[in-house]
Amino acid sequence: MPGGSGEVVSRRARPAKAPLSRDGIVATGLDLLGEQGLPGLSLRKIAAALDTGPASLYAYVANLEELRALVLDKALGDVAHGVGQGREWRPRLKAILTSYVEVLLAKPGLAPLATTTIASGPNAMRLTESLLEALIGGGVDPAAAAWGVDLLLLQVTGIAAEQSARRSQGDVMGRVAKAYAEAPAHELPLVHALHKELFSGPGSSRFGWALDVLITGITQAPRPPTGSEPGHDRPGHDKDPA
Amino acid sequence: MPGGSGEVVSRRARPAKAPLSRDGIVATGLDLLGEQGLPGLSLRKIAAALDTGPASLYAYVANLEELRALVLDKALGDVAHGVGQGREWRPRLKAILTSYVEVLLAKPGLAPLATTTIASGPNAMRLTESLLEALIGGGVDPAAAAWGVDLLLLQVTGIAAEQSARRSQGDVMGRVAKAYAEAPAHELPLVHALHKELFSGPGSSRFGWALDVLITGITQAPRPPTGSEPGHDRPGHDKDPA
DNA sequence: TGTACGAGACGAACGCCGTTCTAGACGAAC
DNA sequence: GTTCGTCTAGAACGGCGTTCGTCTCGTACA
């Protein structure tokens, strides 16, 4: 293509760079996520940290979405899924979920990442298994346990994300709290009266209360799904795919 | 400034463009969100739809984050917050939350938007007021009601987002479901046995069950917070702001 | 031993994004 | 009639995910 003077500069200046690897890419992404929060988890920043270009990462990762799932799953490896093995099932369940939320809060970007991405790697599945085991071991109907795990993870992840936002974006949360604090006493009397309770607490007591609510509800809910319902549960595939 | 031949092209060719307005910008954003999903809610696309440049929007909106909150709050205006006024508090609460989730699912990008953004506009606050009213009217302790509203909204929003993702990103959800379906029977026996229940149901029955769980738990949770606790709830501002 | 092949590395570019700077245009107030 | 402040834009900056085409290099095969 370049018909002019040849002058092919030899691309010999390669100082023994460590070869890329999927694990290294994911580990670097997790590090950057911990340092810079969610914006740190970008293909370009990971590539720069690895002293290469973004295109090089595509040999190991399909796209950003897959990378995010891998990073989240790697982080979930720190969850203590075998905690309180001998104890009763309720404290055991709480201990696992507490470990989960602690992991999410250990690095700034993890909680927001967990709300957007669903990990399907081995660590996420191990966590699901532990939660199912605790619930079913406590006598909860298996089908209710399956749905309950979803409920618990969704709630706990959301609480972690809320608390994470309070740390790193206190200004934004402050503006929201102020808006509720300035609610007109007429028109919105309950919001006005309870605005402090609505935003109270850094999560520790609130988190425990949420767990109690969910566990109580799961064990005592009126009619746990039997799983053998007529089958109108899944008519075709989707009712409105557009 | 350009010393050359004057030739100042008169900028007269302005065909009576409707002047921009905050409401028009938000309405256009909501329309685009409904048509193109979350990626449709961008300053550039809204500006293009309004036949102007992105810089022009900054006279009415501080940044994208504020615009997102405004769009979400406008959408929440469709929630029927006065539904089932005469009925008992439980069906009333369910009716309000059902309306909320229906609004979120009415336009493709709304549910994902609601998981990322917290609206603090009048419609969001009216929704909070209605939920508080139903709970407290049912005899729930006011402090527990305040925290319960958070619980309910978080859960319902998450369920809506999950269902929304199933519609517009069925492939992604399918891959996750397949990963769980292929869980090794040893190692992860419960996940293997219950993988179908973990991903079952398009939400209608599941949504109702989640509501029952939460309401039951909120009313029967062991010790609702009294609100007059010693005060270690909020020592300074944040324990670990970094 | 020589050679062909395929996977990995990578520079460059495309199109998108939010945001800012700068200069004009215009209506209202003095 | 002039000034002033708000609104309108064009242009640009830096960053993003992703793709394309090419180049290198270790390896397997002849």
In short:
Chain A has 242 residues and is mainly α. Chain A has helices at 22-36, 43-49, 64-76, 89-106, 110-116, 122-137, 142-168, 170-181, 189-198, 204-220.
> What are the secondary-structure elements of chain A, in order, as H or E?
HHHHHHHHHH
Shape of chain A: flat
User: Which regions of chain A contain 5 or more consecutive residues with pLDDT less than 50?
Assistant: 1-16, 227-242
Biggest interface between chains: A-B, 73 and 75 residues
The chain-level structural class of chain A is mainly alpha
Q: For this entry, what is the oligomeric state of its chains?
A: homodimer
Span between termini of chain A: 46 Å
Share of helix of chain A, binned: 55-70%
Evaluate the radius of gyration of chain A.
24 Å
The overall pLDDT average of chain A reads 82
Q: Tally of extended strands of chain A?
A: 0
Largest sheet of chain A: none
Strand residues, percent of chain A = under 5%
